Amino acid sequence: MSRRSLVRAALGVLLLALAVAAVGVARGTSSAATAFRHGQAEWQQGVKPVPPASPGVAQRTGETLLGIRVRSDVLRAYERYRAGLADVIPGTTHPQTRARFELTQTLRGLRGSLGSGRDRAAVDVVLAVVLADGAGAAGPQRQAQLDSAVATLAQAATEDPANATAKLDLEVLLHALPPRSKPRPTRSGSATKQRQPNQNPRNPTAPARVEGHGF
To answer: Are 108 and 130 in contact, with CB atoms under 8 Å apart?
Structure first.
């Protein structure tokens, strides 16, 4: 075979490889976009919780090309959380406690990589609701967890002043917190029972885009 034929053969193989790679990238991009839309539906509509499938190399490449890699990781973490809450074992709250812990750890790790304040605020709202929801099972750390939920909602309102949900949840949670002072006696002379906080002021949902949210 002549040198010219070898060059043609090499170019043919290279073009074939590029074509295959282009098809793979196109499929990965399409898969990333579809998975992202599905994740948004999970986040916004609260459909039946199902653990997310692990993304392959092609899908991760597509997410990177579309600029949605971190946001996709956030959505997958939320899907795993909801699936964990649905995993009920009679007589124990371990699956739910673990699901809350894993979500808070994951979202705190991803938050700083989100590019916009409205995305960070959307994550903060979910973090706050999860913290408040799990405070009832936090034992001596209950008050600290509720305080953290309040601080996180305040942070969300600062990050995105257009986030009406952060402001509403903050107001609801502050009104639901028990007073720190000693309870006053009732008219009959007995001590009043300390008002218990509403541990879940709102379910974690992504507000509408008109409220300035990114998911």
So the answer is: no
Q: How many domains does the chain have?
A: 2
- For 139-153, the pLDDT digits (tens) are 777 888 889 999 999
61 contacts 26 by C-beta, under 8 angstroms: no
Q: What is the pLDDT of residues 36-65, one digit of tens each?
A: 776 766 665 555 667 888 888 888 888 888
| Residue 41: inside a domain | yes
Residue with tokens 């692990």: 54
**Domain assignment of residue 12, yes or no:** no
Together in a domain, 82 and 127: no
Are 182 and 207 in contact by the 8 Å Cβ rule? The answer is no
* pLDDT of amino acid 24: 66
Structure confidence by residue, pLDDT tens digits, 57-103: 888 888 888 888 999 999 889 888 888 888 766 666 677 888 888 99
Single-letter residue type at 166: A
| Gap between the Cα atoms of 125 and 118, Å rounded | 11
The answer for residues whose C-beta is within 8 angstroms of residue 50's C-beta and 6 or more apart is 79, 83
Q: State which residues form the domain around 168.
A: 114-179+189-215
Closest CA to 205 of 177, 154, 159, 163: 163
- C-alpha 60/C-alpha 69 separation (Å) is 7
Residue 101 domain-assigned?
A: no
Asked whether 189 and 166 are in contact (CB, 8 A), the reply is no
